[in-house]
Amino acid sequence: MSFSVNRNDKMNVFIEDLTHDGSGVAKVDGYPLFIPGALPGEEVDIQVGKTLKNYGFARLLNITKASPDRVDPPCHVFWECGGCQMQHLSYEGQLVQKRKTVRDVLDRIGKLPHVPVHPVKGMDNPWRYRNKSQIPFGERDGKVVSGFYRSRTHHIVDTDVCIIQSDEADDLMAMLKHELHALGLDTYDEKTNLGMLRHLIVRKGRATGEIMVVLVTRKKKFTQKDAVIELIKRIVPNVTSIMQNVNAEKTNVIFGDETILLHGKPVIVDSIGDIDFEISARSFYQVNPEQTEVLYGQALDYAQLTGDESVIDAYCGIGTISLFIAQKAKEVYGVEIVPQAIEDAKRNAELNGIDNAYFEAGPAEVIIPKWYANGKRFDVLVVDPPRKGCDEELLKTILEYKPKRVVYVSCNPGTLARDLRILEDGGYRTQEVQPVDMFPHSSHVECVAWLEI
Ligand code: SAH
To answer: Does ligand 1 have an atom closer than 6 angstroms to the CB of 321?
Structure first.
């Protein structure tokens, strides 16, 4: 490697690329430098910071040629908060960047340069889309603070407003913070494991407008409980559900084991397409239901169901995709490793009068081979694995039994590309890939891939 780059050097560089966490990348004699705040296509003055063997970091001093896609981040804490990575790039620019990320990994890792990657399906209004906020509370210099963590830390970036969450979450976050001292309620201290209020969780049903508020406290009993309930009802008069979760442990995990109803109902309802979902304090539910409909609509399009098919939904969570599919197929078999999610899936099937969806809890790589070994056969297989991608054993099972069509929903283009290569080597052909933007202003991108054999 060249070592023309040293700490504290100042230079002007051209930004070639953007990393996953939103840093610009410049190459100086082939040596990559990561520069937070810089955008592709820009020329910037930098000062080199830490240098490692294969790459280094630099600070942005001045932009000498700005990207036409650069915008002023609308959020006033964007540069400190770790919640968003790309508010300084126009939304159109973000979508172009996300498509490029997918294209690059399909070429590099998947060796699939011929597979079409469509333009990313984005949101018409990419603000206030999150239906769930998990807001830590703390205290600094005698003042209550609440907001979101700085990237890779537990430092709360104090704010009254977060423009990707609901108005109600903003109101609750701000007003609770400003009234806590008057109520005499203190906040939890991670270092000493003392204090009461740990987290505020706000969930909203997009289609129904129903609101759930969850207070995570260190103890079950606290004297200000009734006053806090009254305050929440004053901030959100139509609140559907107020819950308390008790977490006495010294831990990073948000929820403890005990959840108590304080006011209203223990669940809220939301719908995606024409399927209703019941959401409890701890159940998993997609955070952007508007785009979930787009994502799963795409998965359904690629599945090309006529009504005669037996379909597997692997990694089915609470059965969101399964229940969509059930309406269009002969039957669907969902598998998911978290038993509670399978309980939710069964209840949601019942709630919607769906009787051709079968759910089983366990690892997909164990349960699916078992179904096949029992003589079951499937026409279409849908997978929606976590970030690490499909288990190798599952890929082996697919290649052994070769369902005609595979629809792969992915939240990590890197592992998607790796798994597509394995399926291609086993005889499948990737037809096309459709990225969908589930998390505007973050660097995440979801994809749906369609494969045939
Ligand atoms: N399709 C789901 C979400 C999928 S997220 C929905 O729309 O709700 C990925 C899911 O895979 C998570 O629910 C996770 O619990 C589950 N999971 C992780 N490893 C698994 C495994 N080995 N077998 C089955 N499910 C698994």
So the answer is: yes
CA distance 78 to 82: 8
- In our burial notation (b when 16+ CB lie closer than 10 A, e otherwise), range 395-419 reads bebbeeeebebbbbbbbbbbbbbbb
3-state secondary structure of 225: helix
Active site residues: 411
Nearest residue (CA) to ligand 1, atom 2: 317
pTM of the model: 0.94
**How far apart are the CA of 56 and the centre of ligand 1, in A?**
36
192 Cα to the center of ligand 1, angstroms: 35
Q: Is the CB of 412 under 6 A from ligand 1?
A: no
**Domain 10-65 architecture:** Beta Barrel (2.40)
User: CA 222, CA 225: separation in Å to the nearest integer?
Assistant: 6
Sequence ranges of the chain with CATH classification 2.40.50.140: 10-65
Ligand 1 within 6 A of CB of 341: yes
CATH number assigned to the domain with residue range 100-123+288-452, chosen from the 4 options 3.30.470.20, 3.40.190.10, 3.40.50.1110, 3.40.50.150: 3.40.50.150
Specify the CATH number of the domain 132-272.
2.40.50.1070
Condensed to tens digits (0 to 9), the pLDDT of residues 365-377 reads 999 999 999 999 9
Ligand 1 atom closest to 411 (CA): 5
| Cα radius of gyration rounded to whole Å, the chain | 24
* pLDDT tens readout for residues 116-161: 999 999 999 999 999 999 999 999 999 999 999 998 899 999 999 9
